[in-house]
Amino acid sequence: MIRVILAEDHDILRDGLQSILANDDQIKIVGEASNGKMLIDLMKTVPVDVVLMDINMPVMNGLEATQYITENYKKVKVVALSMMEHSSYLQQMLKAGAKGYILKSTGKNELISAIKKVMNNEIYISQEMALKQDEKEGKIKLTKRELQVLELLAEGLTNKEIAEKIFLSKRTVETHRKNLIVKTKSKNTSSLIKYAINEGILKP
């Protein structure tokens, strides 16, 4: 049974979420909160697995509450619930520790699926938002090898050290690095790593 708390300041939306989730025999609503502070106080007394977290709440917003939960309740998964389709909100919540981000316009099946996926230690982003972000920004696709090189660059390794570590020639590593810079429209390796962190490709 997945124990869920609804953190949403609009009563009508909480009632709707309650109604949707009540129909799933693997999910149990164990509490509701209308702001982040109320949520934190509730979590001190109620065991919970997943928090459905509205971002814009009074007193203590969803971003602040997510940061607190990430630091103090490491096993609790946060799924952001928002009307905001901008990637900046998505990235802020992921950096704060959220494991999912879904739009309030999402369907009930996707909502339930998102909760179950984050419980399975997966990251879930609303399908609708992912499609819209791809259309607006053009999703940059990295190969497994490029991602491997990027991660090692972020660790501060030189081209030679990376080549030795993943059994490539130094020249091949340099080619991957240049391709990464071109793909992300970065000026240099430093700005490449900054871009990757900002876009959630790398963890800070």
Give a description of the structure.
The protein has 204 residues and is of the alpha/beta class. It has two domains: 136 residues, Response regulator (Rossmann fold); 55 residues, Winged helix-like DNA-binding domain superfamily/Winged helix DNA-binding domain (Arc Repressor Mutant, subunit A, Orthogonal Bundle), CATH 1.10.10. The protein has ten helices and six strands. It has a six-stranded parallel beta sheet, with helices on both faces. Helix 2 packs parallel to helix 3. The model has no long low-confidence stretch (mean pLDDT 88).
**Annotated CATH architecture of the largest domain:** 3-Layer(aba) Sandwich
Q: What is the CA-atom radius of gyration, in angstroms?
A: 20 Å
Described by the principal axes of the CA atoms, the overall outline is elongated
Helix content: 40-55%
Name the assembly state: single chain
CATH superfamily of the largest domain: Response regulator
Task: Report the biggest beta sheet as strand number plus sense, adding barrel if it closes.
Answer: 6 strands, parallel
Write the layout of secondary structure elements.
Blueprint (H helix, E strand, L loop, with lengths): L1 E6 L3 H11 L5 E7 L2 H8 L6 E5 L7 H11 L4 E6 L4 H10 L3 E4 L4 H12 L4 E2 L1 H11 L6 H11 L4 H8 L3 H15 L4 H10 L6
Parallel strand pairs: 1-2, 1-3, 3-4, 4-5, 5-6
